[in-house]
């Protein structure tokens, strides 16, 4: 009968090497998850990581500028009347020119907003003392840029493909039902590709944030299974005599 290499054929040195590699990669994975948390948590204004944070990271919040959202929402009571709000929204609509800013918007901000939105107030909120400062809250929020996504995807694809390949090479030395092994060895690659494509799709379809999270979770689970099962079989599993 054809014999494929198994952990029972590996030397102790090889098993030590494999184990040290797997443990280090496992810790690296936990650090990657922590990094992901700190990068995206709180985007939606709430503590912790949520689907909304992921949506904002990739899709942004297209329909609003930060300034428009504020004067339609929590900052509305600071405006003296509806005409002032219309003046600001019109300025955004008309392309945020400096002339129109000076003529129509600056006086409104000066009288109603700058007492808080300035360096003197000491609050860590956007300052509205100059045209440039106000422009910073008038851009449409369109989430991650394509160049940024391309940069992060190529790093992820190259880096993670290597890791998954090496872990898979170790994992296939396990003694397990063949179908199970075939699925578990392919799954992290497939879901990695799905995860990374979903970053781009989420830029267009915000609900794909769920696919980003789901696919990422499957990568983590199948990767974790390979790691734990491999270490277990290397050191604790006694193969049945065949
Ligand atoms: C009494 C102080 C106060 C006044 C007056 C005030 N703001 Fe604010 N503003 C705040 C604080 C505090 C925050 C941050 C808390 C929050 O986001 O709800 C904020 C947040 C904002 C933001 C959101 C910034 C972001 O991070 O997206 C915008 C835009 C804004 N204000 C615009 C205005 C405008 C326009 C006016 C005048 C019509 C105004 N504010 C008047 C205190 C003030």
| Number of E-state strands | 2
What percentage of the residues does DSSP assign to strands (E)? Answer: under 5%
Structural class: mainly alpha
Tell me the helix content. 55-70%
Number of domains: 2
Task: Write up what this structure looks like.
- Helix 1 packs antiparallel against helix 9.
- The protein has a two-stranded antiparallel ribbon.
- It is built from 9 helices and 2 strands, in the order ααβααααβααα.
- It folds into 2 domains: 143 residues, no CATH class; 80 residues, no CATH class.
- It is an all-alpha fold.
- It binds heme C.
- Heme C binds next to helix 3.
Question: Any descriptors?
Answer:
single chain; 242 residues; mainly alpha; 2 domains; two-stranded antiparallel ribbon; binds heme C
Give the structure's gist in a few sentences.
By secondary structure, the protein is mainly alpha-helical. The protein has helices at residues 12-40, 51-58, 66-72, 82-93, 98-112, 131-135, 146-171, 178-204, 209-235, and strands spanning 61-65, 140-141.
């Amino acid at each position: 009968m054809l014999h494929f290499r198994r952990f029972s054929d590996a030397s102790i040195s090889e098993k030590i090497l494999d184990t040290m590699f797997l443990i280090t990669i496992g810790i690296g994975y936990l650090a990657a998850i922590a990094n992901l948390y700190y990068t995206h948590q709180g985007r939606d204004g709430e503590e912790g990581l949520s689907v909304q944070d992921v949506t904002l990271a990739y899709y942004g919040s297209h329909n609003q500028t930060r300034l428009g959202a504020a004067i339609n929402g929590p900052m509305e009571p600071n405006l003296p009347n509806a005409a002032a709000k219309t003046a600001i929204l019109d300025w955004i609509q008309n392309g945020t020119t400096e002339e129109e800013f000076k003529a129509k918007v600056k006086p409104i901000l000066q009288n109603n907003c700058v007492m808080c939105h300035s360096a003197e107030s000491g609050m860590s909120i956007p300052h509205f003392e100059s045209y440039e400062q106000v422009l910073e809250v008038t851009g449409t929020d369109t989430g991650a840029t394509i160049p940024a996504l391309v940069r992060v995807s190529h790093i992820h694809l190259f880096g993670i493909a290597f890791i998954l390949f090496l872990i898979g090479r170790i994992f296939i030395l396990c003694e397990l039902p063949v179908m199970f092994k075939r699925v578990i060895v392919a799954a992290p690659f497939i879901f990695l590709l799905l995860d990374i494509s979903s970053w781009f799709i989420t830029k267009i379809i915000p609900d794909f944030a769920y696919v980003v999270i789901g696919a990422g979770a499957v990568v983590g689970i199948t990767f974790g299974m390979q790691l734990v099962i491999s270490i277990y079989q290397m050191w604790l599993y006694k193969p049945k005599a065949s």
